[in-house]
Design a protein that fits this description.
Two copies of one chain form a homodimer. With about 575 residues, chain A is an alpha/beta fold. Helix content of chain A is about 30%, strand content about 25%. In chain A, helix 1 packs parallel to helix 9. At the A-B interface, helix 1, helix 9, strand 22, strand 23 and helix 11 of A face helix 1, helix 9, strand 22, strand 23 and helix 11 of B.
């Protein structure tokens, strides 16, 4: 059997190697237009930062062999043609027409089965100056090498990153942290990590990154890149001018599906290749995998574009299995993400409440703030989990988390990655079995707490105030004359607030409310305040039973507010 | 409604507090025979070690209020009677007869609904000397306080821990690490953490603990505890005498179900209270939760005893829900566990292969050894995952993991806790979606690798040699004249082995086998050797396609062997 694989970064090599193990006698040829192949693209920010010293490390196996043509030929028994671009798929004759990138020499490869793994390309903004020297996308290892080279030569002092998604933020960290560059991130949307985490969590991250020296402007896109003598020296936004001798455009990627589309294969309107669960395109002899394909979002039930190296590897293996006659399936994704930023970790699985509402769900957000390990264990830190649930069906739609760097956030996100896709309900999260010991978690883990909060929310036992609305009220931007904050913390904690905000703030210690609730005004809307939200919830239940009607808990308590640093916050 | 709750450590207070929130007007009374209540029992080793300074921290909320009778009364609106033992449940009259522990004064509490949360008691070995001064179980906070008191007064220099389960090992760490005591653990079974992790992983842990100063003897029970003047000074085993001025008996716990049994409630043969998924006993007005109940093992389908604080909390909440009319369920457990020991973490979910075989499964173990984050990321360390799969159905039965301290092991264990209970199959683990970024994991996480290894194992594409059998062969204990180890590593790594074991060891670098396989003897059984097992698997596939018949991969490669420190290992 002759198998041709177009693209040799992630899905392609994975498919090729699996095929070699399954079909020892097949003739397998991998082609790629680049000369650097089979590399860990997600490691690029850590290569640029210097955490990873040599680009070879990104191209090496765990046993330190560089994955070059020699390696693939000798060790894997695969033919690899680099600098070879596939320019046409001739489905009728079952052959791929190729062209050498440097010489222009044409060639052809006939196939019995074909795998398209052409990946994605970065979006180039439709603005002036994108071609200037010093403006980069992170589209290949060559670009990464060029960026690092430029920095290490001392040619860069000010960098602007366009795009506040994961890659943009990781690049910003690497430029600031290890190279000490004056780095600014601009993000067109009103928050960083848009559509990945809720606004308040993005704000926590933003503050942490700013504390570590990164400048961030949200709600502000690049309107022009300005150069001098062909070299970049400025990025303009509608609001400001940013000096820059390095610009990194990290404005997302789009699928490289042209080859497939031109061959008449079914593609999505935005150019991703349509595949079934077996990674098979509309031509049964042609498979596709990785960033160039469209997959299914298991939460929304809609087709989705999910360009991630982790998925590319899984899909590549499934494509190989099916070519070899094993009926493996890739069912889809819920969308899972984790990122390091200096000393914090942020992660997500499934969808955010904003997206959920756009998709027609009646989404609520359960906010939990709790120690990441036993609250009595040394080194514990407050972690935040945001569980998104459909109020009508109680189905869990997503989870987002923020906490101290380490694998604690990952441990919670990963607990739900597989379950959300299979169908998970709020009450199941409350009783979810998780491994427990005090150095790792709490008897009721923050994830269980989030599940219980969600269950109380969807059952109308718990009501939460909108964090932004509360902020506007504290800022006197919206009146809500009837509102009053009821601070349930220890008098030592509450008193400064009562003093500073006498018209807004009332205090009654949590353990006295049961005895003293009659002292409270009956006609007010209470915003119940504590550090984590748990005491507030308990007092909501108590006061509700005493006839109080308008009761709202501050989600996650002041633990959340503290990290958002509003001007009205008292340390 | 009158609700009485017997037991106020974990399940009891959880049920009481949830009930208070759901039924504001109910009269809720908690009784406990102790005067210290509502504490984090799992934190005891960390209290004894000094990581947690004050026992009050184990009894405090996250907002630093001590959970004593005042707290429950004032803050929670619950009546608590401490030092009050329930001596009889009169189901006909729906009342509990009580007795004051100190005064002997009798009392009674009538109930509409009753919750039994009487917990467990430690097993006392049927040997001489268990009553000596200086011999402790970890049965209550009082015992922990007494132990710490004794140590801090300088009365202890040598400690023996009887029992190599989680509590015994945690106690051994705390005695050695912070107090510098000469500490010995003895475990009757042939390995520590019996029935929780496979023998080879237990051995890795044992070596790590020994490296940190803990003495460990397995396959060796305590036969007698010897004292002088009423105080312990020795522990005898069939093989040795161990000096000791402190003995901690951590030989498991059993349910405290007598009260329920005497009231005619259905109990298991070993005394655990039988409950349905609503935590209801055979008397519909009586619920039970926590260490005193029997639950369902969702892997084996059999009834199981799973005394864990984490489950007690979940069960307490479910009991409360049902009393308040909310049809919550606690479906059962798969058995999840995580433990810190000095600089490593070890964890487990589901069942081990040994247990699985006893339960009738055709269990195989997929061993994966891989970097816990991107292999090019600084600070990465090798982690081990052992995925247990039923070969006949491909169902995942369990996962055990070992790695560097931190939350990395937890992140993998927790990824499967919920899924195993719902029904998970080997191929699903290979494609399992997990959050990925290089500082946290690999594009194909070790869990995916373990899933793929399992899938290859159950599909007979991969065959593994038994680690113990390989060890015996290397030790010349079993001949296997036909065996030969084929070392696929770099010649620099393989040469010392070939030199030292010329009759057993052959080397051919992985990337040369495809070209040179004809040089290999055709009549040998090859044990394929590399560092992680991945190259070995690839060469198994290659050689199988060339007509070689007897091919076995060393599970997890030399990464595993290295940590088992056999005498034949070459550094």
């Amino acid at each position: 059997m002759k198998i041709v694989i177009i693209g040799a970064v992630a899905a392609g090599p994975k498919a090729a190697c699996r095929l070699r193990r399954l079909l020892p006698d097949a003739q397998i040829t991998l082609i790629d237009q680049d000369d650097l192949i089979s590399y860990g693209g997600c490691g690029i920010p850590y290569y640029v930062s210097g955490d990873v010293q040599d680009d070879k490390e990104l191209r090496s196996t765990s046993f330190h062999m560089v994955r070059d043509e020699y390696f693939f030929k000798e060790a894997k028994g695969l033919e690899v043609k680099t600098l070879t671009r596939a320019i046409k798929i001739d489905r009728k004759e079952k052959r791929v027409i190729t062209e050498h990138v440097n010489t222009g020499e044409k060639g052809e490869l006939s196939y019995d089965k074909l795998v398209i793994a052409t990946g994605s390309r970065p979006n180039i903004l439709p603005i002036k100056g994108v071609d200037l020297d010093g403006v980069f996308t992170i589209s290949s290892l060559h670009k990464a090498i060029a960026i690092k080279d430029k920095i290490s030569k001392g040619e860069v002092s000010k960098a602007v990153v366009i795009g506040g998604g994961a890659i943009g933020l990781e690049m910003a960290e690497s430029l600031t942290d290890l190279w000490g560059l004056d780095t600014t991130v601009i993000e067109f949307m009103p928050q960083i990590l848009p559509n990945i985490v809720p606004a308040y969590m993005a704000r926590m991250l933003e503050i942490h990154m700013k504390d570590n020296g990164v400048k961030i402007f949200t709600g502000e896109g690049a309107s022009e890149i300005v150069g001098e003598g062909g070299r970049v020296n400025k990025v303009l936004t509608p609001k400001r001018e940013l000096e820059a001798d390095l610009v990194i455009m990290a404005a997302g990627v789009r699928p490289r599906g042209e080859l497939a589309r031109d061959a008449g294969l079914q593609c999505s309107p935005y150019g991703a290749i349509c595949v079934n669960q077996r990674m098979q395109t509309s031509d049964p002899d042609i498979y596709a995998a990785g960033d160039c394909v469209e997959t299914l979002n298991l939460v929304t039930g809609k087709r989705a574009f999910a360009p991630l190296g982790s998925l590319a590897n899984r899909q590549g293996r499934v494509a190989a299995d099916n070519i070899a006659g094993i009926p493996s399936r890739f069912l889809g994704v819920v969308g899972s993400f984790v990122m390091k930023a200096f000393d914090v970790a942020i992660g997500s699985t499934g969808i955010t409440a904003d997206i959920a509402r756009k998709e027609g769900f009646n989404a609520v957000e359960a906010v939990a703030s709790q120690a990441d390990r036993a609250h009595f264990f040394p080194g514990q830190a407050i972690m935040f989990m945001n569980l998104v649930v459909d109020k009508d069906t109680k189905r869990v739609l997503g989870l987002q988390g923020f906490g101290k760097m380490g694998d604690g956030v990952l441990a919670r996100i990963n607990s739900l990655c597989g379950l959300i896709g299979k169908g998970l309900y709020a009450d199941e999260v409350g009783t979810l079995e998780l491994a427990y010991a005090p150095p790792f978690s709490n008897a009721m883990d923050i994830l269980n707490t989030a599940g219980n909060v969600a269950d109380n929310l969807v059952s109308d036992r718990l009501h939460m105030v909108d964090i932004d609305e509360f902020d506007r009220w504290m800022n006197d931007e919206t009146p809500h004359n009837n509102w009053i904050a009821l601070d349930l913390r220890h008098p030592k904690e509450a008193s400064p607030w009562v003093e500073k905000y006498p018209s807004k703030w009332l205090a009654m210690p949590y353990d006295e409310v049961r005895r003293r609730y009659k002292e409270l005004p009956q006609d007010k809307t209470f915003i119940l305040i504590c550090n984590a939200g748990t005491r507030s919830y308990e007092i909501e239940r108590l006061l509700a039973s005493k006839g109080f009607k308008e009761l709202y808990v501050l989600p996650g308590g002041l633990n959340v507010i503290k990290r958002l640093q509003p001007i009205w916050y008292i340390e």
